[in-house]
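Honest question from a wet-lab person: if I give you the sequences of every part of a complex, can you actually get the arrangement of the whole thing, not just the pieces? Trying it with mine:
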Amino acid sequence: MKILVCISNVPDTTTKIKFQEGNTSIDTTGIQWVINPWDELSLTRALELKDDASTGIKSVTVAHVGPAASEPVIRKSLAIGADDAVRVNLAAQDAYSVAAQLAEVVRKEGFDIILCGIESSDFNGSAVGGMLAEFLDIPSVSSVSGLKFENGAPVLTREIDGGRESVVVPVPFVAVVQKGISKEPRIASMRGIMTARTKPVRICEPVASDSLTEISGFEKPVPRASCKYVDADDPARLIELLQNEAKVI
Amino acid sequence: MSVLVYTENWDGKFKKLSYELVSYGTSVAAMLGTEVIALTIGKATDDELARLGNYGAGRIICLTGDQLSVPDSRVHAKVIADLALKEGCNVVIFSNNIAGKALAPRVSVRLKAGIGSGVSRLPLSLDPFTVYKRAYSGNAFAHVVIKSEIRILTLAQNSFDAVEKPTGALPETVTIDIDGSMIKTSVTETQKQGGKILLTDADIVVSGGRGMKSPDNWAPLVELASILNGATACSRPVSDEGWRPHEEHTGQTGKIIAPNLYIAVGISGATQHLAGVSSSKYIVAINTDKDAPIFEAAQYGIVGDAMKVLPKLVEAVKNLKK
Amino acid sequence: MIKHLIFTVTLLITIAVFGYTVNRLIKFFRFTKAAFPVRDFGKRFNLMMRVAFGQTKIFRRPVIGFLHALVFWGFCVILIGSIEMVIDGLAGTERSLRFLGPVYNFIIASGDIFAILVAISIVIFLVRRIFGRIRRFEGIEMKKKSHIDANISLSLILLLMISLLAMNTGYTGKMMLTGEEMAGIYPVSRILAGFFRGMSPDGFSFMLEISWWTHILTIFVFANYLPYSKHFHVFMSVPNVFLSRLDPLGKLTNMENITREVRLMLNPETAFAASPADAPPERFGIRDVEDATWKNYFDSLSCTECGRCTSVCPANITGKKLSPRKIMMDLRARMKEKGPLMIKNGRDFSDSRSLLRDFISEEELWACTTCNACAQECPVNINQPSLIVDMRRYLVLEEASAPGELKSVFSNIENNGAPWQYSAEERLNWTRDLDFEVPVFSSLPEGGKMPEYLFWVGCAGAFDDRYKKIVKAFATILNKLNISYAVLGKEETCTGDPARRAGNEMLYQMQAMLVIEILKTYGIKKIITTCPHCFNIFKNEYPDLGGNYEVINYLQFINKNIEEGNLKLKKGSLENMSITFHDPCYLGRANGIYSEPRSIVRSLAGSFVEMDRNRSFALCCGAGGGQMFKEAEKGDKEVFIERTEEALATNAGVIATACPFCMTMITDGLKYKNREEEIKNLDIAELVVKAMEG
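Yes, you can. This is the full assembly:
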């Protein structure tokens, strides 16, 4: 079986987000780009499954839609353990066009299990995975917090309100994964870093696709009122404030 | 040219978020000068369905059928998209919850409709159709223009109040036959946690962190949550140590919630934790360390020992209720 | 004649067996790797004289140490007598060395006195071992075999002493009766001879003869027993001290193979090229015996299983699985197991077992705080921490395996340049409410004079809310003294220390090379820092990667300025305070800095009081070696609580620290013991600023 892990490139979470050009785009100077944390977790899980011989997973490929500047993040995925990578040479516009490109990659190369993170830490879109599945007209399972193999077949754990359920779908399918899919992200070993330099990265030109949304501008969140302190000896006052002022009780 | 609002039902019942969704849809429809169709899939009584009409739904449709009881997002997306096309809807609204995240993207491709996900306000403008949504994990907000003819919005939880607007609409239940071979998903096992108020549904959440010092100290916190009819939550170190169930972990890598009131007890306020609760309407911090970063995010704060403060808060709430 | 023959034959057998043992050991050594080059013979000789012959480290436990010293010195002297016995046995002579005259008398007399002193000491040791409940003699690595081994060795030594005394008694008794002139002086044995009233000269002769053979045969047996016993240290200890690592304890060895890789990665031309054809496929770090260096193995053969290292290990004291003694014993045992297999089947032979996991568990390795108490304590200068860190290096670099929290630390250092998740943009927040300006290198006017010093703030100083106060205090001191300095501000990034101690040599070297580049652009030569970890790494480890600076710890700086009269202090508010000082491991044991903080505190405080375990005996706060960032391994107690209790026992009103990690630990300790209201944990810089203002 072949697994495809779709990865996106996001600014490191500690980055102070600054805008430029009249707040229409993000100022990328000095930004440290990292693999989207959810994608890192799905890559880790894919590699764990491959390490287990009983699953029959033969390879783990990563796919990314982005320009040449994304190369370091792709190499990082290879260093962590992916076997090869595909990069669609297109600056990502919106979820719809990214999904369309990824669908073309899947059609050309064929994969059994496709893993997408449920959101990316930059646009918090939660769209690419489901769209990809629909483009390919294959099943998708979302909010997946676990993926394991039983008797050589994949079994997914899906979060539902107030619990979880075990779900089985035939391959090929898309699993849109969230926290819990693996305990913590893998780090690259020395061998990984050394071999990442020469693992294959296939570059494809994009196919024609529309983008259905675009960002017209950004806004910084309005700073909240500063904290009103209540004396520790008089906590009842807090309840009073919450009832009469904030009106939340 | 109507607005379609899809809400799931829970064993035939709706929740507060369903009514918030319908109210939101009603407001959007008012902006567009059109009507709202409320849609659900599954089995629900007419009485229950009619309640959606109290929030502005001009039509209420329930799609039912044996095959539809399986949570197969491919199938559900198909029936929703088919209905949207049939009814000529040009805006489709979902909640940004588990179900919404599974369905909206698939419907988007079917209808070639752009998605504004996690919107928390009504559209900023209709031409171009621009929505306001959370970006950079809460560090910024983006104005997103949806260029396609049909638009899909997923509404962030607890960002829009349910407003009563009775329409007297009568529910229509339609049976749909699906070719069995289309159903690919099978659910083999379900585990539910009974009884407790779901963290994601709760209006009030009382949350504990490392500053609580020990799992044995949780009783007053649980009591406060219970007496406020709220849910309990915790920070990551607490869930990692196993002091509280992992479902309670709120934060960047845990649950992201937006209750009306979030009381953080013994939580320092690291950025990763705040990322999970920053959309709460009000944050209250109780901590012995006056320099803890949580006080910068909170609207109300008490610098004191949780073990002394919590019981007094419980007392105060009890007195209120009298 | 027969005697002569028997002696020669037994000597030859002894040498043959010994030769076989040595040959086998040499073969084992051949499987190990190169260590450091052995140079500085003068320094090494001095070290050997002090530590080995002077027994300075043994004396760290004064009473029992003195007894051991007696035994050792006794052995040295008696050795000469034994050489004489071998010559006598081969040549058929008697007391052949008597030609040395007064020197001979001195040697023999010393030997005689030592014989009884050693015998008494050995009896004390045996009684103590068998009937006393000495904690450091217990442990999971101390199996019955070890105890039996110890008792056999002690008994053999006792037998040697008794036979020597009996020999001398027989000789003196005979000589006194026959009136012949004695070769040598026997102060003790002549008294002993006096107890044998009525013994004939022949009787004494017999006593002499029997004892002589007993003594020399026991030596032959003992010599061949030693290599298989913990008592091998009799042969190995002196050379092991001579071959010691001469670097400061705080320094870890650089991995050259990693440096090669990092240079390739940082050069954009080679960043995506294939590894050069000559790239060695050897393992990174230590997993099994063939990865260890000859010095690691030499250490393991010198280990006496005394347990002093384990008894001072903060992890072991608080019930964790780690025992430095066990680490060394395991290496020796594993070589004993695998060595013969490798001799038979070749170096690459695998028996599907390994030193890592089959002998030393990951839990033990991750419990280490790298405090160096074990290396400091070891009487034969074994260096346990380097083996522990080398095994961590294997885990991280080869298996990408580490406790989850440390993996997050690695990611954070890689992505945002600090062990915690903070943006570099926030590194100057601490300068905000100061009433003077802190110069920043990047904002200095072009073409102006470069500041004399770089004040390296460190990640804790920039991001830890409590430690920000300390860097503010130190900046206040620099400002008051009008020192020409600047900080790097947002250009500062982690020195890589947490990564290096946790075994991630790759990440450390990448960070180090980044920092060295930044320092180069500003032509920085002198660095002052408030963090002992940054201090240690700049001073001892950056030079290996091309970063050479004059590195000054803030305590040294403050002390110098007090001594030179530049920094005037008023005792004022500190006059009635009693202060105790917690020695940070990375200043103390790692770099030998003990007197400066004490001298500063003494010039400030009403009274200075030492904790029980202070200076090189100081107990670690528990935060080093990555422990600050992770959950403690399973144990009975937390290290920081143990140390805080010790500090509280001094009844000092202030516990002074000089490290951000120690401060976090001690403050947490005070909170845990609910004493944080009355007892204050203050940094030396804060105390100085208080005294500056008065």
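Two things worth pointing out. The CA atoms of residues 3 and 126 of chain A lie 20 Å apart. Chain A has one domain: 2-221.
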